[in-house]
Amino acid sequence: MDMMMQKRVLILLIISHHLPVKIPKTDGKVPAVIVFGDSSVDSGNNNQISTVLKSNFHPYGRDFIGGLATGRFSNGRIPSDFISEAFGIKKTVPAYLDPAYDIADFATGVCFASAGTGYDNATSDVLSVIPLWRELEYYTEYQSRLRSYLGEDKAEEVIEEALYLISLGTNDFLENYYPLPRRSSQYSVDEYQNYLAGIARDFVTELYKLGARKISLTGLVPMGCLPLERTTRILYGSQCIEEYNNVARDFNTKLGFMVTELNKDLNGIKLVFSNPYGIVSEIINNPASFGFHNVKSACCGTGYYEMSYLCDKMNPFTCSDADKYVFWDSFHPTENTNAIVASHIFKHNLSQFQ
User: Fold this and answer.
1) Quick check: 162 and 154 in contact, CB under 8 A?
2) For position 98, what pLDDT does the model report?
3) CA–CA dist 219, 272 (Å, integer)
4) Low-confidence ranges of the chain (pLDDT < 50)
5) CA 308 → CA 17, 177, 314, 328, distances in Å?
6) How confident is the model over 208-223, as pLDDT tens digits?
7) I need a surface site. Which of 40, 188, 324, 342 has the fewest CB within 10 A?
8) Catalytic residue annotation
9) C-alpha to C-alpha distance for 130 and 74, rounded to whole angstroms
């Protein structure tokens, strides 16, 4: 038995009792969760491409089911996993490019996200990851495979009733606009926000044309409070960078207005804006009330700058209990934080799709 087959068997043995035997009847409910975006929701697609931005090694995944390092940028599950579970579908959403899975697995949920990507194609170029337009191409390929697997009528039902999660945008600012001169010389911050919002509008519209009707567009978190940003802007005294947080709030406002407009313009669409900014701000400002002990530094390594290959099993500083930390590495939340944020978004934005 080769390694890929062994991996597949192990995963299936661990979570098989959580998986539905058949495609669930829709009856207005969600039969599948389909995911687009960046590392906030990438469940392992970057493992299969040539990029330095990977997390398919320990200690990533140490608290995941079976202790597997799947390529999720966390110690455990990510928000899309928790949302899928909340709809009673399955506990994890598999990556489309992972050869351990096939269309039978993807029929109840699939992830096309790629860590490091953004709305802007120039953002995906920085670390050679999958651009958003390519994620959409994978989705159209998936539709064809789904029709062959389920038949035309059942596939169309799944496509129309599925929940589509879109989560990205942080990299456009922190990986592209601020550290590199190209976009900042072309656009003011406000103009760049409008540029990105226009891409988001076009992406949602294309999904709608392909049959999607239930769509959640996720906003930005307080990105000025990420440990990496606090560390690299040391003149702020390791405090949150309010300039970045203001940009996140402003961009969220633009996305919210765009969502309102599209709900008017696209007949039959049910588009919601899921804004994590408030709940993440609450966690950061009042960590103890959520059971956290540390918010300024991350669990992995020293907690100030480590991410991806800098956060590996050889680092002697990684914490023993990630549940006490808001952040897992310098850029990504712990599983505990992901669970809290996903629960909040489900309750306030997505429960209407139940």
Assistant:
1) no
2) 98
3) 11
4) 1-28
5) 32, 21, 13, 11
6) 999 999 999 999 999 9
7) 188
8) 39, 329, 332
9) 20
